[in-house]
Specification:
Elements (H helix, E strand, L loop, with lengths): L1 E2 L2 E2 L4 H11 L5 E3 H9 L9 H16 L3 E7 L3 E8 L2
Antiparallel strand pairs: 1-2, 3-5, 4-5
Helix pairs in contact: 1-3
Length: 87
């Protein structure tokens, strides 16, 4: 996947998360829904898999496009994909 003409180097699972959020542009996707779609089944209590995956994707995107934020946190709810220039 290219961002700003540079290879982001996402793994298959990271790209799946990126695509899941991007196809729901500007909509908040709840953490349990992300977990169910990515891993199948119900999210175990206190599981941080979604948060860790989001952090990895964010880091890679910021590495190739530092002036942009793509994934936004809605604390206690989930994540929203909405590209925004920050500088």
């Amino acid at each position: 996947m290219l961002v700003e003409g540079r290879r982001a180097g996402l793994t298959v699972r990271e790209f799946q998360l990126f695509f899941l959020l991007a196809e729901r542009l500007d909509s908040v996707v709840q953490r349990p829904e992300i977990y169910e779609l990515m891993w199948g089944g119900d999210m175990p209590r206190r599981d941080r898999s979604v948060d860790v995956l989001v952090r990895r994707v964010r880091g890679k995107l910021e590495g190739v496009a530092p002036d942009w934020r793509y994934i936004h946190t809605h604390f206690g709810i989930g994540y929203r994909f909405s590209p925004e220039r920050i500088r």
